[in-house]
Amino acid sequence: MRKYLLPETGNFYKANLHTHSTVSDGMLTPEQVKEQYKARGYSVVAYTDHDVLIPHHELTDESFIALSGFEANFNRVAKPGVTYPTPKTCHVCFVARSPEIVNQPCWNPAYALTGNAPEYAKDVRYDENEPFFVREHSPESINEMIKKGREQGFFVTYNHPTWSFENYEDYSKYEGVHALEIMNTEALRGGYPAYVPTIYDDMLRCGKKIFAVAADDMHKTAAIGGGYVMIKAPELTYTAITDALFAGNFYASSGPEIYELYVEDGMVHIKCSEAVAITMNSAARGGGGVFAEEGKALTEACFPFRERQTYLRFSVRDKQGNFADTRAYFIEDFI
């Protein structure tokens, strides 16, 4: 019997889940962001300006969904004019599951510091019965905001750990994120390691059942299209897209396409665009890879799975060196 890991039915929609506009420190207005991404084949953009949740539902139409969100900065010190006093920081994106979610969790206007964010702080809606949340660059503070964000209906992503100068001692203590940015375009443009599958495996192997996303973290037009997710959903509506996100019905990519991923007769089958390598990684030794002969290309592969491997995830690499990565699928996903 065949079981699909990526849904059998539905359509793939190209999405960027980490975007900055002139609402904070981006170079494009929200309208220009939509224009630039649509011109490159995107159907979904999450507007995640620094520390201010400003919905842009007026930009949603029959061919484009503007998801509401924000990026929270946890710095060693946070005060006006001193954004990054020390190298180490933690950034986390929050994307609202429903367009009806308009209140920003853990609000504190003191942290709306980046770019034009102070001008928009007055427009942020929040629960006025809650005290202002005081952030610290500590696992306790970060985990508390992640927890509150999840409780209030947000998809939570841990962003660009190499740009943030964080290491295993830091990210192994973070609990509750839905996903890690396995690739971040702006980090690459800044000279930092941007594609970090080993960090994804670090988090998986210390017990975190999380997804992997690729995102631009777009501040300038040149960053558009470096990394994205392909979301498989039954239709292009706000909640269909976010339901698929929460279910993990997507893959991350910087170029290659994954068409099918399913289990049949004890084997995992993957079908994709032309590739030079298709590999499987897991929590135990016993992964594998299929590699194209020189001058030829692969478009499919299959791998066995065993319970001792705990999870499996798959990567596709094309001749340009670009990657597509599935999320980790745990043994219960195969049964």
Descriptive account of the structure:
Helices cover about 15% and strands about 30% of the residues. The protein has eight helices and 18 strands. Strands 2, 3, 4, 5, 6, 7, 8, 9, 10, 13, 14, 16, 17 and 18 form a 14-stranded mixed β-sheet that branches. Strand 11 and strand 12 (about 265-275) form a beta hairpin. The longest helix is centred in the middle third of the chain and has 13 residues, at about 140-150. It is globular, with a radius of gyration of 19 Å. The N and C termini lie close together (about 10 Å). The model has no long low-confidence stretch (mean pLDDT about 95).
Unreliable stretches (pLDDT < 50, length at least 5) are: none
Tell me the number of helical segments per DSSP (H or I, 4 or more residues long): 8
Biggest sheet layout: 14 strands, mixed
How much is the radius of gyration in Å?
19 Å
Number of strands: 18
User: What is the H/E order?
Assistant: EEHEEEHHEHEHHEEHEEEEEEEEEH
* Class per helix and strand makeup: alpha+beta
Characteristic key phrases:
single chain, 335 residues, alpha+beta, 14-stranded mixed beta sheet, four-stranded antiparallel beta sheet, 8 helices
